[in-house]
């Protein structure tokens, strides 16, 4: 039978206690630095960043401003009310004030552009670490989305120019088709126009396992909150949709209810992503939203490798919060230090946390113990501490 479980006091800091240095000392970590990028690698990444910024920020912004200027210039020639919604066949079936489309279309395009703009601002001055096709894909997708939105807006306005009644303007199906073709073409060109570059850079810093007695148990807990960039983008999206929902309700109640449903869905997605609690103990690692869901768990016995690395949420994972990309589940609330856990299947779990070194050391110790322990072994890993044992 196991001896009484001991709690590692250094790993659960009291409120206001700066336990970072003491926790690292208690972990007894031995960090192995990864290979640094060469000067040529850094220069290649800098060139790739410039191309990505042109594709995902400068061109979309120019298209957005041009679309807004054109639609505002056409505003005196639009019927009142104007068509604001079209059915499956492209026939107008929703109507509103003439200014609605010139606000909604450029506003949506500007929101897409701002997503990459915030990411580019975060990366300014940051040391390049890695580059892959994912960093080429995201700007191309943003450019494609802006072209699609702008094309739909221009087609919708052009079809109504000088019309006395928006109901008689007919379908805009061909406008939608050509907008889609232009969007796909812009995305493909935007992707292949960027340098084809893959640099893995530093794969992470390996951390030695924490030294624990055979029956000793430790727990490490951190709360991670959304970055300002995430809150700005999420908040701007909510405010934009809420502001548009009010006039749409008066002009087209059905469209207003759709906007309200979209707003509630957006809040339901964004709100649980603002605060997560990450916990490492003898059972493995668990990341859980304050709302209880979503939740990610990696059992200690499923841990193959543990490392600490620097990450960029938007450029590497396409955004903030809980992200699912091929081969990886990532909880990325900010740029910077992250815990990287590789499962035995080869999939990885990435979590941006402070004091990732200590978490990595404890998780490595838990994984080693879980693999070596057997049911008859008195030194087997003790059960995980309950959260109220802290």
Automatic annotation (TrEMBL):
InterPro entries: DUF1648 (IPR012867). Keywords: Membrane, Transmembrane, Transmembrane helix. Residues 371-384 have a biased composition (Low complexity). Residues 63-107 form the DUF1648 domain. Coiled coil: none annotated. Residues 371-390 are annotated as: Disordered. This is Uncharacterized protein DUF1648. It comes from Leucobacter luti.
């Amino acid at each position: 039978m196991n001896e009484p479980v001991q709690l590692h006091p250094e790993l659960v800091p009291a409120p206001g206690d700066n336990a970072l240095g003491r926790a690292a000392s208690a972990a007894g970590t031995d960090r192995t630095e990864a290979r640094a990028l060469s000067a040529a690698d850094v220069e290649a990444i800098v060139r790739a960043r410039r191309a990505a910024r042109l594709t995902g920020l400068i061109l979309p912004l120019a298209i957005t401003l041009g679309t807004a200027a054109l639609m505002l210039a056409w505003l005196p020639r639009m019927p009142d009310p104007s068509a604001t919604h079209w059915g499956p066949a492209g026939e107008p079936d929703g109507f509103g004030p003439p200014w609605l489309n010139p606000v909604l279309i450029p506003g949506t395009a500007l929101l897409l552009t701002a997503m990459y703009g915030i990411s580019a601002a975060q990366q300014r001055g940051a040391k390049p670490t890695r580059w892959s096709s994912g960093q080429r894909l995201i700007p191309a997708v943003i450019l494609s989305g802006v072209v699609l939105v702008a094309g739909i807006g221009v087609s919708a306005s052009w079809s109504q120019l000088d019309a006395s009644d928006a109901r008689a303007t007919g379908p805009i199906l061909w406008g939608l088709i050509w907008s889609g073709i232009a969007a796909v073409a812009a995305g493909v060109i935007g992707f292949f126009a960027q340098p084809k570059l893959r640099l893995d850079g530093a794969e992470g810093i390996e951390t030695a396992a924490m030294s624990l007695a055979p029956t000793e148990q430790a727990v490490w807990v951190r709360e991670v909150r959304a970055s300002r960039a995430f809150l700005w983008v999420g908040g701007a999206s909510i405010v934009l949709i809420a502001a548009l929902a009010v006039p749409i309700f008066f002009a087209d109640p059905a469209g207003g209810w759709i906007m309200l449903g979209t707003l509630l869905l957006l809040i339901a997605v964004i709100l649980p992503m603002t605060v997560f609690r990450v916990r490492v103990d003898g059972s493995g690692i668990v990341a859980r939203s304050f709302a209880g869901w979503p939740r990610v768990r990696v059992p200690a016995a499923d841990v193959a490798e543990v490392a600490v690395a620097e990450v960029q949420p938007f450029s590497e994972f396409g955004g903030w919060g809980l992200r699912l990309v091929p081969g990886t589940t990532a909880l990325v609330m900010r740029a910077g230090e992250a815990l990287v856990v590789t499962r035995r299947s080869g999939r990885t779990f990435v979590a941006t946390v402070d004091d990732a070194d200590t978490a990595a050391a404890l998780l490595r110790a838990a994984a080693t113990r879980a693999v070596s322990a057997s049911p008859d072994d008195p030194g087997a890993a003790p059960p995980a501490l309950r959260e109220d044992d802290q």
